[in-house]
Structures are given as C-alpha cells and as structure tokens.
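Quick question, first post here. What does this chain look like in 3D?
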Amino acid sequence: MVRHDRGGSDLIRRPLVAISEGFADYGDYYGYGYARPLLAAGALPVLLPYFEREEDRVDLIERIDGLVLAGGRDIEAWRYGREDPHPKHLPGQPNLDEIDLSYALLAVEDEVPVLGVCRGCQVLNVALGGTLYGDLEEFPEGGADHPGAKWDEWRALVAATLEGTERPPHPSHPVDVKPGSILASHLGERYEVDSYHHQAVKDLGTGLEAVAWAPHGTIEAVEMPGSSVFVLGVQWELHEEWQDDGRSLDIWRTFVDDARRRMESREEVGVP
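> Answer (accepted):
Ran it through. Tokens below.
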C-alpha cells in the first residue's frame, strides 16, 4: 500500500512498531535510542504509555505490527518467584513491570513480532514463566566473563548518544551462537557483544530456547522456535550496536520485515 504525502510523492506504508517503556531514568534516551534503528529499518516507531486497564493493553497489542521491549531497571524479584532479592537488586518500577510483562505475554499470544533488548529480554523470559539471576555474582563462575554493570560507563554512553558525540568503548565479551538460529543467520556462530547488564536469564520461560551464551554459560539471547513470527531477546544493547555493525542493523530489518508481513496480512482481511 502507498499513500501520498503533502508534497505529492508516494510513500510506502510502514509497519507500526511500539516501544514498551515509560518510566525510564535516562531523559530522552528511550525515544531516541530505540526509535533510530527502527526508522533505519523501515518501521514507524511509537512509545507506549502506561495503560492501567488490561482491556486497553489488549486493544493496543491487536493494533500494532511489532513490539520492542526496551531496557531499564531490574524486574521486581517476586514476579519470578524469588522471595529475597539479591542485595544488589536495583529499585524496581512496579507499574512498568506490570505493563511490560502484560505487553510481552499478549504479544506472544497474538503472534505479534517481538524484539527484547537487555531488560526486554528478561521481561520476555519472566512473562513466559522464566526466572533470572539476581546479579553477576550468581552467574556461572560468578560472572567472571562479564565486565559490565558499571553504571558510570552506561550513563556516559547514554549521554554521548543523545549529544551526538563519540561514544565511549563498550565493555564487551564474546558469545557463542546456536547454529540455525535467527541470530546465527545474522551474526554467525561467534560474535562480540557489549556488556552492561548485572542480571540475566536463569531458567527459561515456556517456549523459549537459549541461542547465545557467554564463555562460562550465561544465557545471552533467547528465541521462540515454535512461533510463527519473529521472537528474539538479546541481553546486549542492540539499539546501540546497529551503528557499529551492519549485521546488527540487519536484525532490526528482519524484525521490521516480519512486522510488515503482519501489517499486510491485517490489511488483506480489513483489520485497521
């Protein structure tokens, strides 16, 4: 489908991709940092507000073509069955947890393409019944292979992105990627990722499969092989790495391509 802009030229209709965030600590970063790769990949991104009522969230998920679960604070530990949070657990955001987990589950159930980034990968896992490590100290080998969770470094990256200045070097580590996965089709079976997180997927949620691991075995990415649509969660900052490596941008393009298929199939049956 094409439409005409006010100048008279034809524009290809873009899939509507929602970014689930809302109460972040980084100023303009979420709208800016996550929207840019989506725009570059051919989507029309929007930021989701807090919808208190479940029926409003259901209505919204039915109307979008794709969902990005963005980064942010730690998920409240009780939401994945943990009575005593790790001492380094960061203060949660109950309202954000509620809507993020709801959006994730509704999107999977409605076969909306989903891309989870950092916290978003963890949200996807917890929404489907999985659990998390509370801190690097609980990772295999005590997180010896993870140089991240240095918040000053993260905030310096956020500031550089917003200001358009040279971004500082990422703390990083390699990951092994499962052959035949969506991720391997873009990144190959060995890849270097940034590392800012201090929590990670522990027990997998229903239907999810681990597809990338840090050197000592910490899960770094998940997919849903039984889904008919794109479902991927990565622990690293994919919304930053697309600027450095075209392979990362291709992941965004594949996600947006699947969102476009949903848009077109809805148009075929007259769904607005």
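Residues 1-10 have pLDDT under 50 and may be disordered.
The domain at 2-268 is CATH 3.40.50.880 (Rossmann fold).
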